[in-house]
């Protein structure tokens, strides 16, 4: 058996990576994989059918019952893994024409063989070979360039144009001449039978301790020659093979050629033939396709199953891993091509006019914005400005949090088929939202990045975060956001609990110690604990990464907009929240959430629990059950499981719609943002200037996102550390609350935050009632997201056995998660750097305090800078934070399969889609608290201040 160390030595000895290192090469291969999907799309348009394989689209022969047997006298040097003397394994064989378009067999073409050798349920090996000793391409770039040049070519004229014009423009005249020569050498031959062809591997692979080899499959001795082909029959290769195998077995001899040296038997250059005189072909086994009737129902069913398979040379073991640039690219390219063909991955070509004109328009707006910010332009121009800015941000500000595949790639088993139920329902943990990449966005996936991380351990405590908190964040006087109500504050926490959660060590296990600055009194880090001179903050659990570097963190909940705060992020939690006996509804007790441990309700996510959060959880748990009731009535044959899963889809989509169309425009109160959010969900205004502008510069934005194709913009979907940072909106929370009776307008009581949080929240909401709670929060203002307005209650906050100052925690977390400081943060989002504190804040007192705390404007913490920045008129937070929102708001919708391609009646049911289309926050409130009908705002969002009730018996209002 080849060891990992031996495999690593083979990599270093024989392989050279494009871009200089495996990770750079991997990124290049991902781009090439997307190019191959575009080739498939062009071939589909040319052929007028569905998506086929990028290459080898037509398979004259598919056989499931073949056998591969290694010879009894297998040389000792070639005995490795499954290759052992006399070992025999079942195999599946697909014989194909090489073109990406299904065309008559009379067309000159290369041919191929794909063999899947099944060693055990856990191990198989895919052998892929073509009917020419070498590849027409030296490496992956040339291979993809050739495929793109020939994409859609069906007749001699288009093929000649591809070979003589497109190909030289892509790879150069000399390389194009060599590639055309290789192609001509194979396509001039007349092929009479696929059984009489020899098939050579494309490049080398490792063969245990024997090192690199190439393999070939040639007709076994005694194979009858082919008769003259019937060139009038478009499927003569199939018919010839069917006649042949009906009469006798068809067999091929498996041979290997061993590596000699890099000049005569190169690993990286697939266009160089390993000549038999240098590397003799050594027979090692025999592949037998038993005699059978290919026209039988059984054989036809087998052929159909084979067409659904995805072959990949990387479906093997590390002892037999493919080698060389072309082979390394095949892992990503074949996976993408297969997923695209099977409807699990999508591509959407940007029109040429957009690619040419959008950069010009972006430059024009960039120049204009130096003098007139986007938010001061007329609304339609603001919208176009934002859409072009989003294109820039997508191109420059989407980064994977860590390599999702190994660089270099490693061998893998054949992926398990997609669980059928997960095609039409969300999984518990977010897996299989993207069917081609099941782990994308699932619980446990790492957070991505919008900016290059900047880890500065020397500045972890500079300036002291306690000093920053006390001088710049501490709430001295409550500063209200008068355009909003407290439900808006509760809502964003409700949403963040769905999206993000960094795992933490338990209190006392592993902590960050923040020294208290001189003059600051002692701190108790645990309830009843001793006074200390440091604050202890439980550390986040980072992902172990070889070689260290910037920390990477996993999300314990799914990254998708899937209502996990209601439904949980694992199977056990999700099942425990259901009604007894597997009922479709969520468990409620007297229409409130059921009691859980320590007095906290039993729900999907209940950290930092308080009365406002409880109200929204209760409201949407009731909404889920209302959807279940409507589905039962409309579809009596639907099972309880199906009702539950459909209701979850409906409620999750409704929440996404409310956030997009109601909460966001309420917090960012400008006409341009209102139009932009409506454009995301429903499409842009139907005015001709808007439609023309989008047609010219961003055609994809001409429709709303729901119902379109998923699009990850070149980076696997995840939420980002920067996104989490800009959603640090704790100032929204007041310290004191007044609870009212919605009917009489009488004040029931005034409470502090500590009296309505943790286990005290449920007792209070049951006593107050949901309608009174919603009304009380609906008529109260949250705090403004600004400096000097952090809730006092959260600066001495008990959580999981520790006492924390949440404002200090937020500063510490951002620094240790390598979030760039504010000036670098805004520069990374394409805003001009600040040269002085005076440019940051218009308030002299704030500027003085900033100078007192920080040595330079470049040192200002990101959260402090975002709070200090003067926001656009109507905005509840800064324009810098808004740039992250511009990027991620549409991405959360556009990457989600259940909000794009599977947002359709077959999945949601017609009733479900109607429920989302007609629903909103107001309709949800009124469905469960109809007595509030006269109190909700008439012409605006339910997150705007509600009408207050005149107190009974007086002329006063509350």
From TrEMBL:
Gene3D superfamilies: Catalase core domain (2.40.180.10), Haem peroxidase domain superfamily, animal type (1.10.640.10). InterPro entries: A_dioxygenase, Catalase_sf, Haem_peroxidase_animal, Haem_peroxidase_sf, Haem_peroxidase_sf_animal, Oxylipin_biosynth_metab. Residues 15-24 have a biased composition (Basic and acidic residues). One of its GO terms (biological process) is response to oxidative stress. It comes from the Bacteria. Its cofactor is Ca(2+). Keywords: Dioxygenase, Fatty acid biosynthesis, Fatty acid metabolism, Heme, Iron, Lipid biosynthesis, Lipid metabolism, Metal-binding, Oxidoreductase, Oxylipin biosynthesis, Peroxidase, Plant defense. GO terms for molecular function: heme binding; metal ion binding; oxidoreductase activity, acting on single donors with incorporation of molecular oxygen, incorporation of two atoms of oxygen; peroxidase activity. Residues 1-24, 399-422 are annotated as: Disordered. This is Peroxidase. It comes from Streptomyces ruber.
